[in-house]
Amino acid sequence: MPPLxxxxxxxxxxxxxYAGQYRLEARLGAGGMGVVHxxxxxxxxxxxxxxxxxxxxxxxxxxxxFRQEVGAARRVSGAFTAPVVDADPDAERPWMAxxxxxxxxxxxxxxRNGPMAPAELRRLTAGLAEALRDIHRAGVIHRxxxxxxxxxxxSGPKVIDFGISRPYDSDLRTETGKLIGSPPYMAPEQFQRxxxxxxxxxxxxxxAVLVHAATGRGPFDSDSPYIxxxxxxxxxxxxxxxxxxxxPLIGQCLTKDPAGRPTPDEIMTTLRPPSYDAxxxxxxxxxxxxxxxPVPETGADASSxxxxxxxxxxxxxxxxxxxxxxxxxxxxAATAALLVMGAGGVWAVGTGVDFxxxxxxxxxxxxxxxxxxWRTALRTTGKATPVCSPADGTGQEASGRAAGLYCAADxxxxxxLDPADGRVRWSRRAAKxxxxxxxxxxxxxxxxxxxxxxxxxxxxxxxxxxxxxADLSPYLGTPFDAGDALLLVAEDGTTEALxxxxxxSLWRHSLAGHRxxxxxxxxxxxxxxxxxxxxxxxxxxLVTAVRATTGRTAWQRRLDGMLTPVGTSGGALVMTAMNGxxxxxGLVHYEPEERNVVRMTLPFRMNEPEVVLGGDTAYLLAHGxxxxxxxxxxxxxxxxxxxxxxxxxxxxxxxxxxxxNRLYFxxxxxxxxxxxxxxxxxLGQTGPRLRNGRLTYSSALPAPxxxxxxxxxxxxxxxxxxxxxxxxxxx
Length: 731
What we know:
- There is one protein chain.
- The chain contains 11 helices and 45 strands.
- The chain is globular.
- The strands form 12 sheets. Strands 3-4-5-7-6 form a 5-stranded antiparallel sheet. It has a 5-stranded antiparallel sheet with strand order 12-14-45-44-43.
- It is α+β, with helices and mostly antiparallel strands.
- A hairpin with a 2-residue loop joins strand 9 (150-153) and strand 10 (156-159).
- Keywords: ATP-binding, Kinase, Nucleotide-binding, Serine/threonine-protein kinase, Transferase.
- It comes from Streptomyces atratus.
- GO terms for molecular function: ATP binding; protein serine/threonine kinase activity.
């Protein structure tokens, strides 16, 4: 096991390279008691590793408290916290590794975007109440719930930092005269009777946290912690600005008497009915298509157990059969569901029903100017959102439509859809109760996906027959698609390239200077794949351009800063630059032939933005929906930011560029949004697509697919849908 480095009493001691067996890759942040680093487990999981400051490592009381923190975090299930992966409280520098949870803290979110909307606040209230119920059921009192200890992840809020938590049965007591906690979020009894603090103190803190989320300030506000402490004990909470429907509940949480506060279960009961999530988002019907009757969509609640498709032609015929628009449409959907059922590994749709003119070719009748939107509900499990990819290259035919659309998700395995009308052409089912199916890609004339059992499998796109498979167990993560090669990185940092058409190994070796590289970008025009690796402290980044099919290094350069390649433009490489808190703060434009480096500073810091490059413009889409267009080749003295748009979206997918100055991205509730890249204007969006009418957040948010005039989206209700990219105003 590699030792901790730099453990002396010098500045190097605050920057160890290892914690136990984990190499520390980047600094995520720091607190009063330690520094949190980004690391990876042996299987490639991203970890947040907390390493105690050197000056506290020799403090026996602190070690006891840290040991208690580890034990408390382990006692909680992990559904509402960051699960503990490993820890060593007895090491020379005590450390604890938890699963890395991407997402901003509540404090950062409110600071950047202001108070939460009422619907968001209700979801936060329910999520934190559920988290406290889970924590208390494990016999733990957190005692330091505050906005900076709440992570807003895609699966709901996560409570972190159990540094001063106390199990009910703990013998460790706070020293006389010491108050431990954050005064604006401490309960009165924490100031008056710290040895008698119980679960109700966490409920008081919850109330204070919710006031901050609703107003941007606390219920007791002062620059002096002593005045705040007095207000907490003696004054009434200031609830001005809290939504009227939540103010009584939050006020009850802030009652001085612990016995008068609601339990987490009672808080959740108070929020029902109506459901706090279903009331926030209501699915809407698609607007009529020009030149045809309105096209209804089959609801997810009617098709969650079978693959069902009703195209524009089918909907029109259903209305002719049933003028009342009722039972006949449901009968058509049910008939289609029954006809999809099959046996064996390969199954296909052969309806034998006239769906209003969609023939074997899959094309809808009508002129080239007409467009028929469609929606297909796939049989997915849990909160799975299908991941789709078009055929090789642009995925387009002369008609401007994709030549093939291949989708994967939990419960369905791999499926080919006809991009013209959404019919299922073939599908390879996933094993029952199998783990997640990996992302799907199409290259070398085959469809590739990671399947349960640690396999990389290739299918013939025409019939769905298996062509070859490879063992992924020696490698980290999923294969990186680099055109005719699939790149895999082993635990020891070795890269192996497989021929995407045959599965045969093209080359295998380590990249000079790299310990464990990541591949972030492939440029089809040059055949170069870009590997990068941050130094232990994030001060430099080693970037290597590799010829994907031969493994030869085209160029390599160590550049200052924590950089990630995001695109190429005119032979130059464009990278994002992060600060020590893993926030994106700028862009770097690097020309390898001239070794010319140009750095551009963003107008504000962005948390984990998704980036797409179009020509000389980089589009950065941050959590919270802020979209910024940045000129990567600004004229001397010219403006770097071309435009900025607040889309009001929450968690989003990576953006993709389409024809006609269009940019598209998806949201966690299944909406698809279109933006004009020339003027930075929102052009339109679809309605939410929810599973059984309820707001759900999938573990992955796939990007949409743009092919010609068609844009394909996926949603957490398990559906894949196609809309006209030329007319987003009528989505």
